[in-house]
Structure prediction request, 783 residues.
Amino acid sequence: MADEFDVIVVGSGAGGGMMAYELSKNGVNVLLVEAGRRYDPETEAAMFQFPKEAPLRGESTPDKNDGFFDATVDGGFEIPDQPYSDVGDGFKWWRSRQLGGRTHHFGRQVPRYGPEDFKTHTYTGEQFDWPVSYDDMAPYYDRVETVMGLYGPDADGAVYNSPQSPNHIRQKPPAPRATEMVFAKACEKMGIKTMAHPTAVLTSPLNGRQACFYATNCIRGCSIGAAFDSVTAYLKPAEETGNLTILPSAVVYNVITDDSGKKATGVRYIDKATKEHREVSARVVVLAPSAMESSRILLNSAPGGLANSSGMVGKYISDTTGSFLLIRVKAFENLPPHNEDGVSQPHLYAPWWLHGEEKKKAGANFTGGYKLEVDPYGGARHGPPSMNSTFSQLLTGKKGLYGKKLKDYIRRSYGSVMGIRCLGSQTVSIHNYIAINDKVKDEWGVPTPIFHWHWTDDDYRRAIHMNESLHSLAKNMGGEVIFDGFEKSRKAGKLISTGGTTNHEVGGCRMGDDPKTSVLNKHCQTWDVDNLYVADGAGFVTHSEKNPTLTIMALSLRAADNIIERLKENDL
Amino acid sequence: MSEDQKKPVMTANRRRVLQLMAIAGTTAAVAGNFVDASAQIKSQGYGQDVDVNNPVVTWDKTLNGTQLKNLDVVGDLIIPADDKSPSASQLNITDFINEWVSAPYPTQEDDRKMVLIGLDWLNGQANVEDVRYFHELPADKQAAIFDKLASAVEAGTASADHSLFMERIVYLYVGGYYTTDEGMEDIGYVGNVPIESFDGPPQEVLDKLGL
Prediction:
């Protein structure tokens, strides 16, 4: 391919899509390189099919880890011939290989990081500060949300450190479900405030995209564009500018530099159709193939790693922490049939509520916090009944039940068993990092990652508190706990499941003010290679309890501004 | 949300199946003149890039006629007909069980082994009554044998493989049955339809919940 591009963007998900959109809208000539095939939810997403229409009633398999109708293409935790390994407490790596990346499978939860999340060290003396503050990021959140579209709560009712999208940007949220009304009442008793969960789903039309019709699971992809994804919101309008070229099925594995190693000249990739190794060049290279993949590419690009004078490439990776209880709430038995599908995401949540002195008094002796919500598409009457999400839950603790008694039980109890859950921060640690395994290569001959993963004592303290809060919540909802996924691990003093499984893994190329201790500066530009940027989740310094996607996109947009400005000034 | 946390029950089962497989191999060898629990499924799955709008089952169904007849009896013991909805066999849920246990995936392969071990046991009980197969017994004797199994499972006195067989076969029939139109109607699922706006539960639901 000729040297005709200003910028190469690697990866088309949240970070890469945002980058390609902003650059091409500003007249920058962009080549977007994506490892997967082209994918368009408008024609490909399965919208109203019931489980009975799929093999195995649509249940998860090693081929489709989140069920048959999930939008993920050539991905999941395990991909044939794309191995990885882990050391320590366990780590699983979710990938997608399709245009738009993981934004199709995405849960669409888009909370903003708050002031303390960006400056954790300043506020608490623990962990680290980011080189940007909430005030620096707020205008970028506004701009991302304007293009992405979201519904959310009244911003005036926001609680400390969980800022909400301004009322002129967010759309009106759907009403809470019955289960969520009971959840809200229980939280109120516990002194915890609930509100609509900021969610990248439209409840009014936006930019030619339709409003949600309150049916079908967002993880199937959205053919009407109500649920945000990178293809619909970013790449289609970007292609219309004429400034964006998309190169699909091209697996980037190296960034190429000049002899000095201080200037990127392009990338090396494998053309999946021909299996040929090729190169393409541009004035700027932006990596956004996913946080873990960015570290892998940099570590594979030069001996000792590219942009790694700090030795920090691959370090300080983190995910969020999860906790879950299955509860039976008798009040929900024998209710008249009613439609509880709604948006397939939580309509309500309780943002983290303990700070400062209150946090100390509550014995919450850990960094960060967690949010509470009702599992939106699992149990209760949420979504079409499915084997694992509905009936496995209903049958929990009912060993030996069969016949007429079983039928009566299911008729009476349908809707009364539900999940309640937490999503929590993770404490970042130097012991959590990606190394490269030269001995094990993938199908393209590229060395594979080893994930070193160790929960900290701080994580365990938080997880215990999460578990206890869920038990209190269950009690206040009038619920009997019928399954505690962490009961066994609790006895061993370990309450956390496998790393990576909340699908919020970030870090590995952390941002900072000091080139000695960070990989990226505040514009997501690598300290070492002037024209190389990393615009996915790799730049995260710490990980709050908030889902990271919105912040990934805001960082990417901020990096795009910097690139546009430097291109204008002929600085690149 | 953590995907593995959403599937706690399946995960626990899977672990348990793996633990039991060693024992199960022995059991099958003893009772195994009827079924071969170690038979491997050799077909391919549907892959990671599948046309979700045109679902196709890519494997053959592998249970034989006798096994299907046995399962039909078991299915109707688990889900009999009543005045509101039909029985499992009336909706041919056994055909779904056949699809499930023939699938080339680990969970399904484990279930296949458990189902065949369970059927072997039921046929063994029929042998005591001088009949070769469970489905050939009179209905009252079928019910008595099945109830003996279920009661032991409920009381926690059943062997690990009997317990797992019962748990899985009930789960598979319930899952297969209540995801049909008739099953969804029985429990009163009324969603999966496009609506203009989501305004929350109706008044009668609010009243019942005291909201």
Observations:
- Residues 1-38 of chain B have pLDDT under 50 and may be disordered.
- The two ends of chain B are 28 Å apart (CA to CA).
